[in-house]
Amino acid sequence: MKITDINGTVRLNNGLEMPYLGLGVYKSKDGKEVKDAIHYALKAGYRHIDTASFYDNEEGVGQAIKESNINRDDIFITSKVWNDDQGYEGTLKAIDKSLEKLQLDYLDLYLIHWPVPDTLTETWRAMEEIYKSGKVKAIGLCNCVEHQMDEIIQNGSIKPMLLQNEFHPKLVQQNMLDYCAERNIQYEGWSPLMRGQILDNKLLKDIAEKYGKSTAQVVLRWDLQKGVITIPKSVHENRIHQNADIFDFELSESEVQKIDALDSNERTGAHPDHFMEHFANK
């Protein structure tokens, strides 16, 4: 990944250019809160918004994009099919519902939110049909480990373009980074700041002090230097601006390795093999 500025992109395996920095809107309330966050982000130069049907804010996202007066083709928009909508027919209906809520003719990226075991292959078959139809420009998955990705690759006819997993200094999953790199599947990280739990780490604070940056900025820069697309979430204008101010410094290879060494396989979300039980207990 060549890191230049907020306008930088990576090329997916189907040739689509995707901005490597985006705004995540998980838990952003539909309506004014999510619309304001997107307006702040677009004003700051972001051109990548990550939402999902499960977030229940697609309508606000769509309205914010419509109000922005920025050309639709200049904004990269991701959404995801939720667990209850998966399967072949359910997924075909889910994309139409998301497009309607977002007031869009197409999505740039559509993802399977979690790999529901009994329907994963059929869901991917629907994803391939949606991709061929032109309703989405790229397809991929979230929250997968090797055997789930293997199932898709072995049974599908189109290779995923992207995998979005939980990714932060306490959960590097280098095996998954390597898996994707070997197959030319782009890696993207959610919860890059570990829901704030990583921000008081001494190593990160020391590195941040060296560069005159915040710990969050150090982590987001580390994401990009690891070749990982990052989508920090915030609804605060100053934080959204700060999260994008990561292009005037570069971590040394030694610093990247020291941050890698913080890995303790610690998750803030569910494990891909146990998410069904996780959500059943919610």
UniProtKB/TrEMBL annotation:
<dbReference type="InterPro" id="IPR020471">
    <property type="entry name" value="AKR"/>
</dbReference>
<keyword id="KW-0560">Oxidoreductase</keyword>
<dbReference type="GO" id="GO:0016616">
    <property type="term" value="F:oxidoreductase activity, acting on the CH-OH group of donors, NAD or NADP as acceptor"/>
</dbReference>
<dbReference type="InterPro" id="IPR018170">
    <property type="entry name" value="Aldo/ket_reductase_CS"/>
</dbReference>
<dbReference type="InterPro" id="IPR036812">
    <property type="entry name" value="NAD(P)_OxRdtase_dom_sf"/>
</dbReference>
<keyword id="KW-0521">NADP</keyword>
<feature type="binding site">
    <location>
        <position position="113"/>
    </location>
    <ligand>
        <name>substrate</name>
    </ligand>
</feature>
<dbReference type="InterPro" id="IPR023210">
    <property type="entry name" value="NADP_OxRdtase_dom"/>
</dbReference>
<dbReference type="Pfam" id="PF00248">
    <property type="entry name" value="Aldo_ket_red"/>
</dbReference>
<comment type="similarity">
    <text>Belongs to the aldo/keto reductase family.</text>
</comment>
<protein>
    <submittedName>
        <fullName>Aldo/keto reductase family protein</fullName>
    </submittedName>
</protein>
<feature type="site" description="Lowers pKa of active site Tyr">
    <location>
        <position position="80"/>
    </location>
</feature>
<feature type="active site" description="Proton donor">
    <location>
        <position position="55"/>
    </location>
</feature>
<feature type="domain" description="NADP-dependent oxidoreductase">
    <location>
        <begin position="27"/>
        <end position="263"/>
    </location>
</feature>
